[in-house]
Amino acid sequence: PKLWLVVPAAGIGQRMQAECPKQYLRINSRFILDITLSRLLDSVPFSGCMVALNSADHWWPDTGASADRRIQTCTGGTERSDSVRAALLALAEQVAEDDWVLVHDAARPCVHPGDLHKLVETLSDHPVGGLLAAPVADTLKKVGKGTNPEVLETVDRGHLWRALTPQMFRYRMLVNALERAHESGHRVTDESSAMEFSGNMPLLVEGRPDNIKVTVPADLDLAGFILSRF
Ligand code: CTP
Ligand code: MG
């Protein structure tokens, strides 16, 4: 089966509170979206790449990626899962049912080539697919309501992992899982949760904890530092 790449990049970056969506902020004078796409496309031989953009996006033509013939674009949706569904639909004519799709957040420019290879190699014979994830490092508290809530209990973090991207699934299984979640009104914040909702159990592949999602202003400096090291 072939490998395809889907990059949801249709968010508005509300938590970043910048003058443009965070994927168009620059790190070392490059757009975050350009860094993310080149790291992915330079590491894995994808057959094609679909980037979901906001309908109000007017920054894309300024990216280096917009001149890359391997990359196609489509219009995303209200939620991240809507953007991913739109991108998968836009690929429909080109893919085979059991081809692999890697879905990766535009806002994760620090993804490491070693992790990409590890994910693809580990899952190549897996019936469902899976995702990069990292064990939780902090002690976790379950709390009550309010701004400074009371601690109810400490949660055992031994079996808790943070979901990262890329997440890698078979094209048809993923489309069906996302459609089913959408039709049931079940909100999914990543592809794995849609697969779980359909009763398919994805595999966790341990990834580097520095594959951060650039979310708040402080993450820009952090991502710049991480990128300076490899
Ligand atoms: N995304 C998308 N379509 C949406 C919402 C999000 O394609 N309707 C993308 C974002 O562009 C981002 C990724 O999904 O690359 C992860 O989402 P998130 O980090 O939440 O980005 P935003 O939604 O843009 O940020 P915020 O939640 O702070 O508004
Ligand atoms: Mg969001």
TrEMBL record:
Its EC number is 2.7.7.60. PROSITE patterns: ISPD. It catalyses: 2-C-methyl-D-erythritol 4-phosphate + CTP + H(+) = 4-CDP-2-C-methyl-D-erythritol + diphosphate. The record marks R15, K22 as: Transition state stabilizer. SUPFAM superfamilies: Nucleotide-diphospho-sugar transferases. The keyword Transferase applies. One of its GO terms (molecular function) is 2-C-methyl-D-erythritol 4-phosphate cytidylyltransferase activity. Gene3D superfamilies: Spore Coat Polysaccharide Biosynthesis Protein SpsA, Chain A. Keywords: Isoprene biosynthesis, Nucleotidyltransferase, Transferase. The keyword Nucleotidyltransferase applies. The record marks R157, K213 as: Positions MEP for the nucleophilic attack. Pathway: Isoprenoid biosynthesis; isopentenyl diphosphate biosynthesis via DXP pathway; isopentenyl diphosphate from 1-deoxy-D-xylulose 5-phosphate: step 2/6. Catalyzes the formation of 4-diphosphocytidyl-2-C-methyl-D-erythritol from CTP and 2-C-methyl-D-erythritol 4-phosphate (MEP). Belongs to the IspD/TarI cytidylyltransferase family. IspD subfamily. This is 2-C-methyl-D-erythritol 4-phosphate cytidylyltransferase. It comes from Marinobacter albus.
